[in-house]
């Protein structure tokens, strides 16, 4: 019904002439939105495709501490919480967070004892943190200070860096979030207008003429990817724009409409974990019983973190955040301190209504993290196809302008545009791939949080250097070939580097995940280099086209 | 078991796409076979990922299967043309 209304709204049904004019307008909208945002859309889509695997798979690969074990016995967690609760002042027992080493949060088992009202040294929310090795449970790190600073300065790694780049392009918030949210909207517009302007949807479902000239193959690829990926692109565009703009624009707007502009009231309404009333009656909080119950109730799900309110008090409340299992959206399990199960609810709390169910679904639909690795691979492949759409569209737009008796684009300008696309988009791919061998080197030579300072410079300087290279008058085919070769070499380097320097590798098989990731990097790297070597260089092509 | 079900589901979707691509079959046969294969994929995915997760996976899997069929096999030869 919506589509019929949209068609009528656009006037597509109002006669052949009107239809033609509307289609022309839609085509113009599709072209210009695509041209203006093509490079940025590629950047967000490609980094998003990589980010799908960043947590937990690539995060475990990147952190040797997580490779040995991602499971800590419930009894040990209970013991550690009780032992360290005794070591902190009483006000820090108000709110205890246990971040399990699942590859979704920290690289170590982390206990955060928080005081919401500060202490004698701080007027703000303050935390005392203890971090343990997931396997040996040895104390690795401690922290005392403002909570915000602890979370802001936590250890990062290559996959997390790429994931965060996808979220806000490392431009900070709100600017980065607004930009990525806006790009989600442009993807949505491009996908919808693309479906309307392409009138032979069914007929050309399988039309891909790869044996024809490059421009025909690119045009076919653009249409085939656009048609088959349309639903995915619309969903990703919509959910992406929601995730980007929700906290910046939608939250203040909702607060303005329903809460008289009071954003804190709105957040309080949608917060699933309320402050408990402390009874001051001692009663042990059965964390181990609760964890065992959650494991048996949802055996396929991963427990990401545990929040304990009023620990060892008769009114203690425990909340477990779960991901995966049979539920598509993430779940929040609520228990009483004595181990009694209260309810399972969404991360927004026990709020009824269809709209909250839709909002809940946005996260797993965008991240593809509601099931196992297979679903993630579907998201990665379709995400990469989304990244190819703006590039193929831009290539079609450029090629069209070099054709005809009076082309609007000279061959020199065409070559410059191609170099710019390779420098910006290929540069991003290269910069992302370089981070993986760098991660192996850093794991060998730099300990803990000190690694954080390396990712930004390596990533952005590699990208910038490759983009600046596009200014030089080199053949764009050679430039593309070199980009692919270096991308392939970067990925292929990971496996031998890990054999030489890594704790887990394909020889000792300490971690099967590391072995699989290393081999996958090697395969993708070899494919990149193989394709690169297949590309004929510009000089040869020039000779070929010269008349005899 | 789950791996087997996922493999059956993806093979069903790929066969469905090859069936859709084929231009020697009548529309009724195509519709029947496609519905059958899609249903099989849906059942397999639902037994692994639950009702909602299975439905989402079937749609996304079908999109990828269609894309792969188009890129690898291309358009069917025009036997009737």
How would you describe this protein?
The complex is a heterodimer of chains A (548) and B (81). By secondary structure, chain A is of the alpha+beta class. Chain A contains 19 helices and eight strands. Chain A has helices spanning 2-10, 16-51, 54-62, 64-68, 74-85, 147-152, 158-168, 175-197, 214-228, 230-258, 263-269, 287-297, 354-367, 373-400, 411-445, 452-469, 476-501, 512-534, 538-545, and strands at 95-99, 109-115, 126-132, 139-146, 301-309, 317-324, 331-336, 341-346. In chain A, strands 4-3-2-1-5-6-7-8 form an eight-stranded antiparallel beta sheet. In chain A, helix 8 (175-197) crosses helix 10 (230-258). Chain A starts with a helix and ends with a helix. Residues 5-14 and 539-548 of chain A have low confidence and may be disordered. Chain B is mainly alpha-helical. Chain B has one domain. Chain B has helices at 2-21, 27-72. Chain B is globular and about 40 Å long. The mean pLDDT of chain B is 91. The interface between A and B is medium-sized, with 27 and 25 residues. Chain B: The chain crosses the membrane at residues 32-52, 59-80. Chain B: Keywords: Membrane, Transmembrane, Transmembrane helix.
Spell out the blueprint of helices and strands:
The complex is a heterodimer of chains A (548) and B (81).
Chain A: H1 2-10, H2 16-51, H3 54-62, H4 64-68, H5 74-85, E1 95-99, E2 109-115, E3 126-132, E4 139-146, H6 147-152, H7 158-168, H8 175-197, H9 214-228, H10 230-258, H11 263-269, H12 287-297, E5 301-309, E6 317-324, E7 331-336, E8 341-346, H13 354-367, H14 373-400, H15 411-445, H16 452-469, H17 476-501, H18 512-534, H19 538-545
Antiparallel strand pairs in A: 1-2, 1-5, 2-3, 3-4, 5-6, 6-7, 7-8
Helix pairs in contact in A: 2-7, 2-8, 2-14, 2-15, 3-7, 5-12, 8-10, 9-10, 9-14, 10-13, 14-15, 15-16, 15-17, 17-18
Chain B: H1 2-21, H2 27-72
Helix pairs in contact in B: 1-2
